[in-house]
Amino acid sequence: MDRMNTAANLNDSGIALTEANRPYEAIPLFREALSIEPENPLLWLNLGIAQQRTGDYNEALESYQRAVYIDDEMSESWGAMGLVYYELEELDCAEECYRNALERNNNSPKTWNNLGVLYFIQECYEDARRCFEEAVSLMPMYYDALFNLRDTCRELSDYRAAAEFERLLQSGNKEGYY
To answer: Confidence band (pLDDT; 50, 70, 90) for 2?
Structure first.
């Protein structure tokens, strides 16, 4: 096998293309890597991310489901599936996936934030606040979670807390946030 075409090299190239907003070019690389290592859940996850970026949600879901079939403990795949279901407005499925992700890794600020957004749009503001607070406790300068926490506090008429989160948002330059 050509050293340049190892599964790891193909995966790295596919990630770089996906991050460069070139997912259509990344997908064949992930598929080639999977022909070498078909039981690698990380390759299935990365393929799903590229497919999701193209808007092919059904294919992305199949890739994420394959990843969790291989490794049920892979919280990133559960979280990614939740995001697809959220985008498809299948909110019960999204919540189930986010909860599965958090059962496997409750230290993911992104997953806590995503679950909070789900509760926010359902007007479950107390639940949303708890999720955003958890995200901020894990990553204090997480801009999206601070922003969401501020808005949630406003919805709950906790204007003092909202003002504090607004102050935090205004005090840092955006580069200091995650």
So the answer is: low
